User: What shape does this take?
Amino acid sequence: MSYIAKNASLLVDESDLSFGSLALPKKELTVSIVNEDVLAFLRDLPAASVDLIVTDPAYSGMNQHLALGKGRIVGKYSDKGGSGKWFEEFHDTAENYQIFLTECARVLKPDRHIFLMLDSYSMLSLGAMVREAFNVKNVITWDKVNIGMGHYFRRQTEFILFACKGKRPITRKDIPDIWRIKRLHAAQYPTQKPVELFEAMIASSKQTTETDFVVCDPFTGSGSSAIAALRQGAHFMGCDISKEAIKLATKRVATYKKTGVDCLQSKPAFDPAMQKNFWT
Assistant: This one.
């Protein structure tokens, strides 16, 4: 890997691996997590320095524009800038989002993919802007299997906008555009996504023969994308504006590196009877 973000909170090196009498070459996987604003973080990265972007921004649109009362994600939405919140939402104005997408395109290598998670509101208000920076190829539906909270209709799905900088095929021809992966209940971090969801994104883009593949998530949160990158044999770099999230993600990755156990997701989030596993 040619670049590690400055002020990294964590650096992970994978040790020698051996299976029986066959010793494999040393494989070093680095994880760099920075406590920084997303736009500042992206601007610090060199151009064409990452192979894949997978991210779940903390969009403000639905919460602010629909003026919802209370939410379990970030506390009271009316308390703008108040204390007690896990994180500040990304203020997804058209101007901010355009800057965000422009920076994503700049740091992404040519002929590479980006997966952007969107809720229903941001899909309508911001989704079309992605076409200005990338070649939009598809919209993946994440079926959470179990119904969640909602307004008018209770939510069971979210969307993942799949786009490309240049041209690059996905790794297989049998990957569906609906992914049935269970949402996490009573997770330690609000909005925590299942690791398998990010594994599915990475495995769709990364060839198993690519050994120096860099995954970037500028909204790292609890670190699910970092664990997914390690499982898929990829380097990881990311940031989050929340110090609490950084502490949680750092501890999570360190524990996984030491024990092979994901301390924030102890059980699989998918049922092979409902969803074909194409990522392992």
About this structure: DSSP finds seven helices and 14 strands in the chain. Confidence is low (pLDDT under 50) at residues 1-9, 12-25, 61-87.
